Amino acid sequence: MRKGYTLAICGLLLLLSFSESYGQTTIDAEFRPRSEFRQGFNQPLPDTLKSALVTMQRTRLNFNYKGGIISARLVLQDSRIFGETDTKQPATATTGSIGVYEAWAELLLYSGTSFKIGRQGVQFEDGRLFSLSPWSNSGNAHDLAQVRYFAPGFDIQVAYAYNNQKAYNADTSYYSVSKMYKQLAFLHLTKSIASGLDFSFLSVAEGFVKSKTDLDLYHRYTSGGTLQLKNEKLPIGFLLTGYYQFGNSDPTVDLDAYLLAIKATYAFNDKFGGVLGADYYSGSESTLAAAKTNTFNKLPYGVNHSFNGYMEYWATLPKGGLVNYFGGVNLKLSKKLSSDITYYGFRLAESMKVGTTQVQKNLGSELDIALNYKFSAETAVQFAWCGYFATGGTEMLKYKSIAVDTKFPQYAYLMLTIKPQLHETPLVAKASNLHI
Description:
Layout: H1 2-22, E1 24-39, E2 52-67, E3 70-81, E4 97-110, E5 113-120, E6 142-151, E7 154-162, E8 183-194, E9 197-209, E10 217-229, E11 236-250, E12 253-267, E13 272-281, E14 292-293, E15 322-332, E16 337-347, E17 353-354, E18 357-358, E19 362-374, E20 379-389, H2 392-399, E21 410-418, E22 421-424
Parallel strand pairs: 12-14
Antiparallel strand pairs: 1-2, 1-21, 1-22, 2-3, 3-4, 4-5, 5-6, 6-7, 7-8, 8-9, 9-10, 10-11, 11-12, 12-13, 13-15, 15-16, 16-19, 17-18, 19-20, 20-21
């Protein structure tokens, strides 16, 4: 493994000797440690258990090349938890996650059209379905091929992936990578309607192997779009989102579900703004046949941290669906210091039972308070405190009982982000019109 990384780095450094003639190479890094206090993160913590203090770190080394008709990117990443290896860190240690986060090349076919292949992050709109997942310690990336056409006011991307765990000679093995597809295809397009007003459409088809004995695929389809207003000249902005799901949620269950969401922002002045919104994830009634579901499936390639609260209580949706309404303020306290305060309320979209017990529809609420301080263009720190106000509905869904004594759910973290630029060659060649 170390030999492979050494060769990769040496090859990229060799590009520096050519970049003065052929293009531009940049090298930058990211160091991001985050300490978290967990006393009820994701679910209430029973009184019998101790709160946790965890520190994790993500480190990245990014190589980028752009010249003529070629662009390329390689990102090496180390994701780890403090203390998971001993002080000598033997070469045979399997803990941590040292590897390649992104490795792709993009070729300009003709003006505005490109072909991109390799391991790559995918981000659309606010990251609800596909996201780079910047909060995650590992991020999201996909192994796929993509064709893109870009013109002023119009952007379309078509991609396809087909996964295997090993280089088999016959397609006779069960693909069992957790929360991953065997087959993926998506179409995404964005059209500018007016200055700052964009409409986007996304259609996703996922294929999963049915079982270890039946290697045929079942498919889940998600289609919808977003209308977004974001214009710095206007104090108001909004995001309207709608998606419909159909196909199968597993080999024997028919899927018919939807998601509706709205988010509106308003800047009262340069220092004070507000946000209001709601998400509606459809759910299944308790009387629905077992072979059918109306519960929206959150795609695992999106970002959970940006939706439904920092404590991620409903990262996995209840069978009865979810209604999330929220409101908050954002404050610019100084040139370097800002704050975001958001309150969330949660309810079941449909009545549901745990066993024979009816679940209370009110699932509680959450308060998130975040402080952001920017030391420089390369360095920032974020502190947040979050509290969850649980109800009997919360405890019933998390523990299938309301008799579990729990501590007050709270969560706090301190995160430092440092992104230094290590090297940049001057761009002397004529820049291509390849849009990245």
